[in-house]
Every structure is written in C-alpha cells, then in structure tokens.
Specification:
This protein is an alpha/beta fold. Helices cover about 30% and strands about 15% of the residues.
Amino acid sequence: MNGRFLYRLLFIGLAIGLFQLATTATKPASSAPNWTTKVDGWVLETAESQTTTEFLVYLTEQADLSLAAAQADKQTRGRYVYQQLTAVARQTQPPILKQLAAMGAQYRPFWIVNMIWVRGDLSVIAAMAQRTDVAHLYANPTVKTNLPEGKTAVSSLETTTGIEWNLTQINAPDVWSMGFTGQGVIIGGQDTGYDWDHIGLINQYRGWNGTTADHNYNWHDAIHSGGGICGPDSPEPCDDYGHGTHTMGIMVGDDGTNQTGVAPGARWIGCRNMDVGTGTPGTYAECFQWFVAPTDLNDQNPDPDKAPHVINNSWSCPESEGCTDPNVLLAVVQNVRAAGIVTVQSAGNSGPTCSSINTPAAIYDESLTVGATDSNDNIASFSSRGPVTVDGSNRLKPDVSAPGVSIRATVPGNAYSSLSGTSMAAPHVAGLVALLISANPALAGQVDTIEGIIMNTAVPRTTLDGCGSDTSTSIPNNTYGYGRIDAQAAILTQLPHHTFLPIVTIP
C-alpha cells in the first residue's frame, strides 16, 4: 500500500471511530491502528481501485452445533442445526445491519454461518472492521472456475442409446436390478444452473408432478446480477453455461432410452451458484444455506424438512483468485455436514502435479473429494492430486475416484454431450449416496457412515505418482484415494437391512 492510501485509511478509521461513538453505544470500536489486520488485503486494495467492493463480514459469535450429532435422525438434526444457526444470526446481526443501512451500504445477511455480504467503500470497511463483534472481513472475489465447456461437442438425442459405459464400470445397473435406483432420496446440485425440462431430467425434478411445475423449494438462484442468457434471479431452473445440466444428468438422467444417471429413481433440486461459469464465496455459501433449509421463490419460509440428502459440488474456489483459506466456506461446509447432508466435491483439474488439490472446498476434511478415472480405471492426467498442503494439513486427498473421462450426459436443448473433468466424476459419487440411502433409509443423515461405506468398498488402485508419502503399494493414496467407487459392493453391505426384519420379543 502507498503512503497516500495509508493516510486515507487512518483518516477514515478516525472518522468511523467518531461515528461509532455517536451511533453504537453497545459495541465500542477497537483501536484505529489495528483494524486493518482484520481485513483481507484484497478487500482494501479493490476498494481503493474500484471505489466500492464486495466483502463478507464474519461475526465473532458463531453457533455451537456440538449437539447436532446427538439428534435422533436426519430430519431432527436438520431442524436443530437450522434453529441454532438462525437464532445466533437473529440475536447478533441487527446492530450491524442498522449501521450498514445508515451508511448506505448494500448488504445481504446470512445464517449458514453468522456473516453478512456487503458492498461498500473504505468507510464501510473501516466501520465493520472496528467493531468488536466482527471477527474478520473476507474477500468475495469473482472466481473463474476451471470448468469443462458445457456447450461443445453436442450430439443429437438419437445418436446413442442404452446404458453408458461409466455406469456399467461402477456396477450401477447391478444395483438397479436389486430394486434400488435412488427412490425416496433427494439430490441437490449447485452449479451453473439446470435445464429442468430436459427430457432426461424433467421426470426426476422434485418440482414436476407430471403435469405442472412448482419451483418453490426446488430451485434457488444465487446470481442477483448478470446471469447470461438466464438473467438474474431466474424464477425457474436455467443453465447459462451447460455444465450443471451435464452433472445432473450423471446423477439422475434417464429419458427411457438414454440412461446416463447413477440414481435415476432419485429426485433432484438445484441452485445456481455461478454466473456464466464464475462464482464467488458468497454465491457458494448462499446455495449451501438454501439447501440446509430450502425456501419459496421469494426466499421466504425456509423449511429444513425439504433439505436434500446429498449435494454435488462440481466447482472450485482458487486461492490464487482471492478465495483464501481459512475462510467462510470451511465453516459453511462444516455446518452443512452437521445438518446430516453429504457434501461431494470434485477434486479439480490441475493434475498431474502433486498437491494440486489446493482449492476450497476440495481441500476440506468435511468434503468427500473425488478424482477422475478413465474407461481403463486409470487416473486421468488432469485429475488433481494430494496431499493438501495449502492449509498446512498434509491431508490425504482425494477420498475416492470415479469415471470422469468422456462421460456422456444431458446438456441444454434435449441433447447429449461427452465431457471430461473431475466435474463429471463427483456426480457419480453423489448418485451412489442416493443408491445407498434407497437401499437402507436409516443411513439418511449418517454422513460418516455413508462416506466410510463408499471408501471401504472402492476398488483399490495403486500408483507410481509418489505424492506425499505414497509408495507403489499405498492404499489409500493421493492419486486415487481409496480407489474407484463400486456401487454394487457398497450396496451389498446394506442388503441385510432389506432381507431381515427386526425381531421383537413379546414377554
């Protein structure tokens, strides 16, 4: 920062300190020289160059969800988490919102973590940072995610029919023959949007009853400006890039002839978190919040009972573009997990370099991170590798792998396309979660157990990559994780739950 900028910061800090003394008796300001340490450098720099900037005000007080795991089932767990999170936000945010309104700033309150999205100038930044009830001001940059282009290589509806190779490779058809197709399970997807009335997706959309559509509680748009061909705040599912439609087709796609989805009997709901392929930490967090308690189209009347069982996340948030770690997304993913929802995350497409899994939310222990394999069960060269070093954890990642090379699935316009990427691998795992819960509904909300089954039944794969402490015999390893998923092996662990009823002894 140059001397002129530092002088402006000091002047603004002193001015805001006087403003706070006049307007906020309950929360005195911290000393002016220290407040900049609570602000990401990106926030200060962009405010100087652009006059105003977006940032996330992360409050000091956060909800205690330590009792969530003790709740009886997924439904009660989801209600408990929602109640705890909203109570803390309701109790602590009003004074800050009042101050923001008085300063003419734009803002949007959150409860998935106790934070507020803000657009403001340096005076607003200083005012927020000087509050003792504010822990940090995080950057909210626009992030260009490394997505496969979803609108290329489109083939006609009639080109290929039947079951796709990737489904056969993970033994999904064998699971269907047992009677488990994902029925009774809700899959959530946050992505570039969805072509909801695609012939391969419409019958699986929770908002479609066969005659009419109701998008309340089934769709949310976190893009409030721009939005490409969909525009902002789309009142119905819309895909401005083609990527989301493809990922959903891998999870549930089936038009009666083209079978592209792992769990065609599941129902899906969706949230758009990217504007033509670019998102922000705030849009990702907004979608996660909506999934924990879906709302109507006016973003009112949230209902945690309508939450999905699993959320697919085929996106990344690069640190190189301002998505710093630790940041709000870690707390967000932790709270989603506390609500009993499985978070499946693509590993990223920055391989084959070791430690190339380096972006939220793939780096988190709380995410089920997925690498990509080809039709020969070899890791894709582009699939990002572990271990995670960006946060100092040296954590082994990915957790598992799944097919992600030349995967054919739905794209907008009632068409089909073959795409490659870990974006295509992750939906296979989300679909497998749905198959597991349909085989044993008692697994709903049991995130640790579900993840353990998927990892422990994967087909082991070894590697010579040598990432981290891996040897040629290491299982798991930082290339494949525990191996390529096997749907049939996973479901076979749950068959006793269907072949035997509990024995009740009557005295």
